[in-house]
Amino acid sequence: MDERYQHKELEAKWQARWEKTDAWHVSEDKGKPKYYCLEMFPYPSGHCHMGHVRNYSIGDVLARFKSMRGYNVLHPMGWDAFGLPAENAAIKNAVPPAEWTMDNIDNMRRQLKSMGISYDWSREVATCLPDYYRWTQWIFLQLYHKGLAYKKLGYVNWCPDCATVLANEQVVDGACERCGALVGKKALDQWYFKTTDYAQELLDSLDQLPGWPDKVKTMQENWIGRSEGAQLVFKVAGTGDPLPVYTTRPDTIYGVTYMVLAAEHPLVEKVIAGTSYEEDVREFVRKVQKLSDVDRTSTEMEKEGIFTGAYAVNPATGEDVPLWVGNYVLLEYGTGAVMGVPAHDERDFVFANKYHLPVKLVIQPEGEDLRLEDMAGAYVGEGFMANSAQFDGLPNEEGKKQIVAWLEGRGLAAAQINYRLRDWLISRQRYWGAPIPIVYCPECGPQPVPEDQLPVMLPLDVEFKPTGESPLNFYPSFYEATCPKCGGKARRETDTMDTFVCSSWYFLRYTDPGNESEAFSREKTDYWMDVDQYIGGVEHAILHLMYARFFVKALRDMGFVGVDEPFRNLLTQGMVLKDGGKMSKSKGNVVSPEEIIDKYGADTARLFILFAAPPERDLEWSEQGVEGSYRFLGRLWRIVYLSLLECPALKGAAPPPPSAQLPPAERDMLRILHGTIKKVTDDVENRFNFNTAVSAVMELVNALYQYKDKGGMDPSVARECLESLIRLTAPFAPHIAEELWAELGYTQSIHMEAWPAFREEALAREEIEVAFQINGKVRGRLTVPVTMEQDELQSTILAMDRAKEAIGGRQVVKVVSVPGKLVNIVVK
Predict the structure, then answer these.
(1) Tell me, what's the pLDDT at 163?
(2) Cα-Cα-Cα-Cα dihedral sign, residues 133, 138, 139, 144
(3) Mean pLDDT of all residues in 644-658
(4) 794: number of Cβ within 10 Å
(5) Interatomic CA distance for residues 597 and 139, integer angstroms
(6) For residue 660, what pLDDT band results from cuts at 50, 70 and 90?
(7) Inter-residue long-range contacts of 8-11, CB under 8 Å, 24+ positions, other chains counted
(8) Terminal C-alpha separation, the chain
(9) Looking at residues 46-70, what average pLDDT do you find?
(10) What is the C-alpha to C-alpha distance for residues 320 and 235, in angstroms, rounded to an integer?
(11) What are phi and psi of 824, to 5 degrees?
């Protein structure tokens, strides 16, 4: 055994051996409990960053730990490989997206292997490959046949120069982030998944996820946004066109003084046509449509509107109220129309003041008499109805019920539960995505592609034209199709699917990745699902997690899976920061994992990132911390080297006898060892406190040095301590653990060994240290037998010279003992 820790040779050796022996390959084993450990798969950008190292190191500790605890562990990896960056790279570098993506995958796979992560690479998937997206298309068809996939006209962000749809995130200050052109709204036929059918279950089953962070569940709850209210039917004055609105405050209907429509509302054009308001309103609508939905719903954006010249009839009062168009109303939310109640809604109050609209007070707080002239803002609290005809004097909560019932009897209202959650728009006018398996026949209409014709292959020899349109629009060999119903000519759908579709079921494919006849077998998902531990960034708390939950519930209802939820437990790890900020190329503060691994080794990188902070908190990068972790691994290496040098008999030593039969130094060493085993086990298994677990292992190494330096190591105690130390280290620093285990003479991988168990008898103490206090201030400590009675302990302390000096001539009033910890002498 070399005296020095040589990380490069050691890590290369064990990585090669793991690969040669397919060390992490796993299959179903009903004789063991299963454990499915999964980190969110990455987009193959080409290079791993420190956030990846942290995410995957956390998952690897759990996977290795659970394996040593006797679980059959599934720990797979793959690639979320479709997406816009590949198209941008193709345009910029004239490299086909498929080539760019696969090259990046090859590089990142190599980087992940250099970290020593225990992935079963036989289960690797890439969402951009036909053997994966064939089944993405198959799932689309199942949803389509169940009425959960449909097409409708929808308004989207449209860049006229790029001739494509943009996500809200791609619109910056009203302009396209790619070309800078002003972005508008455009009505396009789009494909949607009917997530709203599962809105209530998605909300209710959050209660079945105690292993999820409360903040994530709250974010999902708010995104779903359940509210109880009513749909009230106003009518356009003069035409009688119904104008339904959804409100949670039907009790304020007598306070409505105006109505506001979304710019895209179909009634806008109808009410302004041929009027003097026509051009001004259209100009306003064009202006609003340049805004993203995020901007329009932002609380910080100034609310603006324009009068249409038309009026709506209040169903409760019969009064005409002016009909406006506003920049803060979205067609997709509610009904695309809202009623303005400025006295009892702060946004409406500001809007009404800005445009000099009337304000009507219809709720009075209990015991007060509000006056409009005294109001600096809206009153939004509870109270009693006023200026509300026959409902005056009612508590407003009761007023809600009675008003809805009254209007319902006239066909002008209906109680309704509403959700903020919208159906999922999955259409993308992009090339690099999974093709939607639909063809359009002029005779038969939209037709699903037969399952035996899947996958609808994405052509790879594409050319990106300056128009910015998807190349699929220029490939007759792709879009020319045959109608599966009548055999006539048809045109294939050229939209591709949102990449979130691909990532909403990948965890199911991992359970059965080589299956060529099914997306996954029910037998295998029944064995492996649900995912026991899911790990990833909190930025995915809403969309990805919500969509994956929707997929599992829909597939369950179709009989393809047997679980209600995909992820039993969720850990959202913090970011890796440097100089107080997120690492980024623009800031020049990026730390390359490859450079760290080359200089210090993968075990050092892993150990630092696990030791520096609890996993759920942000971590500040520290070069000194990395060096400290490297020095610790050197100390770990040397304690084994020196122990074997000074006590070679430890290799063949028998297990030690019970601690009570050992000398004091050996008893103390075993007590520290078994206390460490207990703490590390609890920290990893129950709390994910990897930082304190690593700290405990470091303290154990210090104790072993002290034990060795006393001379005359007991071979049996030394062997148990070193073996347990290496096993405790294995999940955190797997390469050095493998090498040290082999140095002890073992041929089986340390990662196939059992996790050490602590012995209660080894934790027992014969003596304890007790502090004594005078009036609550510590004045000394003494070591006493564990069996000493409290009366004897108090007498012993009172007889001590130091205690007598501290008491002086004062009277002892009482003595208070905390058994095993302290004795407090109260004097006056």
Answers:
(1) 67
(2) positive
(3) 93
(4) 17
(5) 41
(6) confident
(7) 8/598, 8/601, 10/601, 10/735, 10/736, 10/739, 11/114, 11/116, 11/601, 11/602, 11/603, 11/735
(8) 65
(9) 96
(10) 9
(11) -110, 120
Q: Which of 334, 183, 330, 351 is nearest to 265 (CA)?
A: 330
The predicted-structure confidence for 284-297, as pLDDT tens digits, reads as follows 999 998 887 777 88
In angstroms, the Cα distances linking 352 to 259, 310, 682 are 11, 17, 60
- d(CA 432, CA 442) in angstroms, rounded, equals 27
User: How many other CB atoms sit within 10 Å of the CB of residue 286?
Assistant: 12
Distances (CA, A) of 109 to 15, 48, 178: 13, 9, 30
Q: Each residue of 448-482: pLDDT tens digit?
A: 999 999 999 999 988 877 666 788 999 999 999 99
Q: At what angle do helices 593-600 and 602-611 cross, to 10 degrees?
A: 110
Window from 16-25, 649-658, 673-682 with minimum mean pLDDT: 649-658
Q: What is the mean pLDDT of residues 668-687?
A: 96
DSSP for 142-203? HHHHTT-EEEEEEEEEEETTTTEEE-GGGEETTEETTT-PBPEEEEEEEEEE-GGGGHHHHH
Between 127 and 430, residue with greater pLDDT: 127
Which two structure tokens, joined as six digits, stand for 497?
């699917």
393 and 385 in contact (C-beta within 8 Å)? Answer: yes
533: region left, alpha or beta (phi > 0 left; psi from -120 to 50 alpha): beta
Cα–Cα separations (whole angstroms), residue 482 to 139, 435, 453, 473, 487: 22, 16, 12, 17, 6
pLDDT of residue 84: 83
Distance CA 53, CA 440 (A): 46
Residues 6+ apart with CB under 8 A from 201: 553
Contact 246, 226 (CB under 8 A): no
Query: What pLDDT was estimated at residue 466?
Result: 63
Strand partners, 773: 778, 824
Please tell me whether residue 770 adopts helix, strand or coil conformation: strand
Please tell me whether residue 607 adopts helix, strand or coil conformation. helix
- Compute CA 334 distance to the chain's CA centroid, rounded to the nearest angstrom: 28
pLDDT value at position 158? 80
List, edge to edge, every strand of the sheet that includes 619-620.
581-582, 576-578, 619-620
CA 411 to chain centre: 45
Q: How far apart are CA 820 and CA 770, in angstroms?
A: 6
Alpha-carbon dihedral angle through residues 381, 385, 387, 389, given to the nearest 10 degrees: 150
How many CB atoms are located within 10 Å of the residue 256 CB? 26
CA-wise closest residue to 86 among 503, 455, 435, 430? 430
Retrieve residue 449's tokens. 């592609």
- Distance between CA atoms of 230 and 404, rounded to whole angstroms? 7
208 or 462, higher pLDDT: 208
**Contact between 661 and 716 (Cβ < 8 Å):** no
| Alpha-carbon span 365 to 462, nearest angstrom | 67
**137-141, 149-153, 186-190, 372-376, range with the lowest pLDDT:** 186-190
- Residue recorded with tokens 């038969």: 444
Angle at 335 (CA atoms; ends 333, 336), nearest 5 degrees: 70
Helix (H) or strand (E) holding 35: strand 34-39
- The SS3 assignment for 1 reads coil
d(Cα 803, Cα 774) in Å, to the nearest integer?
8
Residue 165 burial (CB count, 10 A): 21
Handedness of CA 730, 735, 738, 740 (dihedral sign): negative
What length is written for the chain?
828
Residue scoring higher pLDDT (796 or 506): 506
Per the omega criterion (within 30 degrees of 0), is the bond before 495 cis?
no
In the chain, how many H helices and how many E strands? 27, 32
SS3 66: helix
Residue ranges of alpha helices (H) inside 690-733 are 690-709, 715-729
**H helical segments located in 443-494:** 476-479
